[in-house]
Amino acid sequence: MRLRRSFFAQPADRVARELLGMRLFFRRPEGVVAVGRIVETEAYLGPRDLASHARFGRTKRTEVMFGPPGHAYVFLIYGMHSCLNVVTSPRGEAQAVLLRALEPIRNLELSTRGPGRLCRALGVDRRLNGEDLRGDRLWIERAPPPAERIKVTARIGVDYAGHWKRRRLRYLLAGNAWVSGPAELR
């Protein structure tokens, strides 16, 4: 069953944790549906979070982050890697959850460890920025709760964010082989 809009209208840290174990579906242009189990996420808590793109306020780039919830925020890092985020919280709060890793289930032949690789394996790019996550191209479905223990760590790659770089806003399924990042952070 697809997630309800109300699921996404919660704070990003809660959504990030609850997304673990759920299934992400992407219908490619040729009709093939790729499916992966979400095994790693990171929460970004809006304008006050110095690691969030929303820290610069509402811009053309961040407009999608300001809502409504339940849409995709896709951006480029290093000018070449797409990253897929889930817009959360009530409209106007600009919170989002970065999908960091998937465990392949169907039609995913490339690595899905890390946000850039996840997008490349699915075929997700900036053209899906603003896509409704309850639509027919990109959606998330409930799944049985994960059997693995949930581990919470500091986020990765946000050294510029002052004290926010130490905030424990990265959620993962401990011991899952598809989790990204350094082994000591798994």
Q: What descriptive keywords fit this protein?
A:
186 residues; eight-stranded antiparallel β-sheet; 11% helix; 30% strand
Q: Can you characterise this structure?
A:
It is a single chain. The protein has helices at 5-8, 12-19, 115-122, and strands at residues 23-27, 33-44, 72-77, 81-88, 95-106, 138-141, 150-153, 170-173. By secondary structure, the protein is mainly beta. Strands 1, 2, 3, 4, 5, 6, 7 and 8 form an 8-stranded antiparallel beta sheet that branches. Strand 1 (23-27) and strand 2 (33-44) form a beta hairpin. The longest helix has 8 residues, at 12-19. The model has no long low-confidence stretch (mean pLDDT 94).
Topology of this protein?
Layout: H1 5-8, H2 12-19, E1 23-27, E2 33-44, E3 72-77, E4 81-88, E5 95-106, H3 115-122, E6 138-141, E7 150-153, E8 170-173
Antiparallel strand pairs: 1-2, 1-6, 2-5, 2-8, 3-4, 4-5, 7-8
Quick overview of this protein structure:
The chain has 3 helices and 8 strands. The protein is mainly β and 186 residues long.
What percent of residues adopt helix (DSSP H or I)?
10-25%
Order of helices and strands: HHEEEEEHEEE
How can the largest sheet be summarized? Answer: 8 strands, antiparallel
| Global structural class | mainly beta
Overall number of strands: 8
Task: Specify the number of helices.
Answer: 3
- How big is the Rg? 15 Å
The pLDDT mean sits at: 94
Flag low-confidence runs: none
Overall form? globular
In terms of DSSP E residues, the strand content is: 25-35%
**End-to-end C-alpha gap:** 29 Å
